Structures are given as C-alpha cells and as structure tokens.
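Suppose you are handed a protein chain with no further information: no name, no annotation, nothing but its sequence. What can you learn? This example shows the usual starting point.
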Amino acid sequence: MSLTSEVYYPPAESQGGWRWLDGPDELRTVAGMDPKSLDLVRENQELLHAGDSWGIVIIRHGYLVREFYTFNVLIPTVFDIWSGTKSFTGTAWGLLLDDSRQGKLPNSQKIELDSSAYSFLPEGHPLTDSRKERITIRHLLTMTSGIAGESQGIRGMPTATQHGPFEYALGRSPNRFGKWVDKLVAEPGTVWDYSDPAMSHLALLFAHIAGQEMSEFLHERVLAPIGIEHLSWNIQGGSGFLGPHTNAHTGINVSARELARFGYLALHNGVWAGQPLIPTWWMEMATQSSQMLNPDYGFTWWVNTAGTNWPALPRVAFALSGYRSNRCYIIPSLDLVVARVGSGPSTWNDQALIGDIVSAILPE
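A reasonable first move is to predict its three-dimensional structure. Written in structure tokens, the prediction is:
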C-alpha cells in the first residue's frame, strides 16, 4: 500500500466522513467483497450477541464497506474501549521517544526505550523493591516489568476511597481488595504479565517528561489531524492523591467510525494525507513481536508475527484489544480495518468476526 498523499483519507464526520459503498455490485467490484457473506457476518453477530449493545465498521480500500449496529446504538454512539486505550498510550510514547531523538523535549531531556523508568519518577522513591531501579520504559510498554499483573490476580486498578490509583501502582497502598503490587514478581525483563499498574506508570512518566498530559498531547499531534472529533479520554487520581493524570490503561470513549480512523492511520504506517503523524520506525516496531516471552504482544498492540495469535490471518495482522470485546483489527496486506465497539460480551472469539470478514474477501 502506498503511503503517499494520493491514498484516500476521509474528512471528519462533521465534514462528510467516510466515503461508502452501497449495493452488491459496488461491494464486489470496488471492495472485492462478497455481499452475501457480509450479510451472514451481520446475522451471526446479531445471533451471538443479541443481548449486548455494539457497533461494527468495516473499511476496505478506503471505503466504508458495511457497518452494523444494534437497535439502541447510533452511528456517533461512543463506548469505553477499555484496554484498547493502551495502543493510544503506546502511540503517544512513540511520539515522545521520537521527539527525544530529534532534541525536541523540554529542557533537552533524553529518553530512550532502555532508560530507567524510576529515574523520572520522584514519587516512586524510596523504592518499594530494589529491583525497580532496573525497570525500563521498554519493560513497561511490553508488559515485562515484573510488576504484578493478571497472572497474580491483579486486574485493573480497583482502588478504595482512602487510596489513590497512582499510589497503588507505585506500591504505596493496596487496592480495594487488599492486594499490593509493591514487590516485583520477577526480575524486569524475565516474565510477561499483563499489568495495568505497570501501564499506569506511563501516565506519570509522560507528564513529567513532556510537561503535558498524554491525552492533550495525542489529541494535538494525532487525533485532531485525522479528524477524530468526539473521543474523550478519562483521567485518574487527584482528590488529595497523585494526579489527576491521563488514564494510561483504559478510559478512551469513542465510536466505531472514529476508532476506524485510528486503525486506518495505523494501516498506513502512521501517515495521513501525506503527513507522517506517527514515526514509521515506531509503527513498524510496535506492531511486531516485542519479546519472546509472549510473541503475540508488540508495544501495546496485539500482533501475529509468530502466526500464533490468529493462525488463520496474515502474519502482518495486528489489533488493539479491550475488555467487553472492543477491538480494532488492521490487516495491511488486505487493506482492511475492522473496528468493533460495544458493551459486551465479556469473552470473545476473534474468528467469529474478523475471520468471517476476511473470508468474505473475493479472490483476485
């Protein structure tokens, strides 16, 4: 796929939004997709998830091929995409790291993937575990920091009234269930564990290094330029505790059409209308295996580099993924983006959606 300005890029929704295809002939000849198979996709989704609220948008060759919504969801309806937020956090960090390479950070600071995270976190001292001094930015972005996560029963950031979320993430207080993350479960870089407390570090770090909230930074640099108009991003902390700061691990609320814009930017390697909004080196690195402890995870994106995440899909496929089946799949080799937002279900079968949509692509 060419990354030149000749590629189609949709105007914002308020200015007309995505171009779309209508009618079976256009679906076959322009999108190269079988309309009957797409009808079955919709029927299957409605049958499987009739009790949930959701919206699905399919983009191929720059066209809105189909969109499906439950009866109580409108085109602009937004949903919390939960951990899909992490891929936005990772994108902000890719920009920050690139700014450092170009000498653009405040006070000429230098930050790299292998920089010590706690050297930029005064709130984290004294350390609750001496091994924390060896946690790097890379470890936090790839879930290899050694900070306890889901394998240890640590899910989300459920803090209590008398404790702040960042205090909990730094190991200074327990969560509402009395669980702590003060001690690492392993030496940084030796285990993979999906950890929201680890991801929360990135919000504090970003504010210190950039002198700006991550949500504001990404809105200015990426979201506004690609025409995302109605995305909101939650904050956490404050009220007498550390913060408030951008919620790094969850909390983006967005519609299916606007989430598809972010996926479309990723499809084009961070380029929009001829402008490189995200560094190419970051997009290429972030959407491949970041380590071998879990080769299905890149830098905040789920990937298929090893062919083990989605065996039936091309290895270049990648996705952002959140609780309650919020997804944005990107398959560059097929020029395909599929965005799905909703309130559920809590468990998900990728093959039932993305596999069926890929199967609807006609042979060339």
